């Protein structure tokens, strides 16, 4: 998919100016980047060596509350999924947000030390009370990075892959609160999202459907079996 080009790996791959991705590095660390140019094709390729290290020392859990969800310490609050590693301060979740309704975050279910904004706010409207909200109701990908002090409300980029699609990958259609994809075979389906703020492997933002609801394995993707489906089965 074009949205994920220019994310370098150990193998040479084409560079393009047609992608909004700017040579992302998955983690903080020391890297070596090699770029080569072909006179014959007039194209650039690049690869990356080295290894980053996950940040540590941040809370394992992050919850969302506010008028968009419900009071703290109730069943209405939602838990965000960790990205990459537990304790690195990065979390995500797909959420339907109502225009004008507020969103807050806290590390504990009781909402102690709740916050509504961080230093960098992407796609977030902050109302006159300093609360995070949106101007347009819809499904958003909420991404929080406590290390970078960032909160982002992104337009969801969701994909499906697996044997149910003939081992191909294709975008998932977002329609209001619903996600759908037309499968071509009876088989297994992997579902995942991408974020402009996460350059790690696609498995770090996997999710599945269970009893008609989205479930998030977080960092336990090895314990999450692919979703068995039949042809033309909507995934949410």
Quick description:
The protein is mainly β and 236 residues long. The chain is built from no helices and 21 strands.
Question: Keyphrases for this structure?
Answer:
single chain, 236 residues, mainly beta, Immunoglobulin-like, six-stranded antiparallel beta sheet, five-stranded mixed beta sheet, 0% helix, 40% strand, globular
Question: Could you explain how this protein is built, in words?
Answer:
This protein has strands at residues 13-14, 29-38, 43-52, 63-65, 78-79, 81-82, 90-97, 104-106, 120-122, 125-126, 132-133, 138-145, 150-154, 157-162, 168-171, 173-175, 178-180, 187-194, 206-210, 213-215, 227-229. It starts with 12 loop residues before the first strand and ends in a 7-residue tail after the last strand. The protein has 236 residues and is an all-beta fold. The relative contact order is 0.13. It folds into 3 domains: 2-52, no CATH class; 63-154, Immunoglobulin-like (Sandwich), CATH 2.60.40.3620; 157-229, no CATH class. It is globular. Strands 14, 15, 18, 19, 20 and 21 form a 6-stranded antiparallel beta sheet that branches. A 5-stranded mixed beta sheet has the order 6-7-12-13-9, with no helix packed on it. Strands 1-3-2 form a 3-stranded antiparallel beta sheet, with no helix packed on it. It has no helices and 21 strands.
């Amino acid at each position: 998919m074009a949205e994920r080009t220019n994310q370098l790996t150990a193998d040479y791959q084409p560079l393009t100016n047609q992608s909004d991705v700017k040579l992302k590095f998955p983690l903080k660390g020391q890297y070596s980047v090699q770029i080569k140019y072909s006179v014959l094709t007039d194209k650039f390729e690049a690869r990356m060596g080295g290894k980053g290290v996950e940040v540590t020392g941040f809370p394992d859990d992050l919850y969302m509350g506010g008028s968009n969800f419900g009071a703290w310490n109730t069943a209405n609050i939602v838990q965000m999924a960790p990205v990459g590693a537990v304790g690195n301060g990065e979390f995500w979740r797909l959420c339907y947000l109502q225009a004008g309704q507020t969103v807050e975050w806290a590390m504990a279910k009781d909402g102690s030390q709740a916050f509504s904004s961080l230093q960098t706010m992407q796609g977030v409207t902050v109302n006159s009370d300093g609360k995070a909200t949106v101007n347009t109701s819809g499904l958003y990908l909420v991404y929080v990075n406590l290390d970078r002090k960032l909160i982002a409300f992104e337009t969801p980029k969701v994909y499906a892959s697996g044997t149910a699609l003939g081992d191909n990958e294709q975008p998932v259609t977002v329609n209001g609160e619903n996600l759908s994809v037309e499968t071509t075979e009876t088989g297994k389906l992997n579902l995942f999202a991408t974020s402009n703020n996460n350059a790690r492997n696609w498995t770090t933002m996997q999710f599945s459907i269970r009893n008609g609801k989205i479930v998030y394995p977080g960092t336990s993707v090895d314990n999450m079996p692919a979703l068995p489906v039949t042809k033309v089965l909507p995934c949410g």
